[in-house]
Design goal:
- By secondary structure, this protein is α+β, with helices and mostly antiparallel strands.
- It has a single domain (about 15-120), classed as 3-Layer(aba) Sandwich (Trna Endonuclease, Chain: A, domain 1), CATH 3.40.1350.10.
- Helices cover about 40% and strands about 20% of the residues.
- It has helices at about 10-15, 15-35, 75-90, 120-130; strands at about 40, 55, 60-65, 100-105, 115.
- Strands 1-2-3-4-5 form a five-stranded mixed β-sheet.
- Strand 2 and strand 3 (about 60-65) form a beta hairpin.
- It starts with 7 loop residues before the first helix and ends with a helix.
Length: about 130
């Protein structure tokens, strides 16, 4: 008996949430580039993930964790962003961990209206850094 192999349509439909997330990452990367920031998608590495995007603005590196979900779990998203920024720094032998942000897709709005999440401690640290 011959085993049926899935068609490309079936394979593509296997993880629609993954596709939505990947599309959001690409859209944010393109938006950041369009406004003059350097932005690249990062490779997924399981437990050693380093974030979804690395972005350089005014010579400063930021790690971005992007979420395109209906249900928001900000503590989980924030924890993930912090761990992944640490992984990014470790993988590159950096002495300082880059600041990280969670970028959340805003329903029925353009990429430029996505929410940027950080905690108050990080916000103050960034505001107090000399440029």
């Amino acid at each position: 008996m011959k085993t049926a192999t899935p068609s490309m349509t079936q394979v593509k439909m296997a993880n629609p949430n993954g596709r939505k997330g990947a599309q959001f990452e690409t859209d944010v990367m393109k938006f950041l580039r369009s406004v003059g920031a350097l932005a690249e998608r990062l490779t997924k590495a399981g437990a050693n993930d380093e974030g979804d995007l690395v972005c350089i603005v005014s010579g400063k590196t930021y790690i971005l964790e992007l979420k395109n979900r209906k249900a928001l779990n900000l503590p989980e998203f924030w924890s993930e962003a912090q761990v992944e920024a640490l992984n990014y720094a470790k993988a590159r032998g950096l002495g300082e961990v880059p600041l990280s942000y969670v970028i959340v897709k805003r329903r029925n709005a353009g990429i430029d209206k996505a929410w940027v999440i950080q905690d108050l401690t990080q916000w103050l640290k960034e505001k107090n850094e000399k440029h």
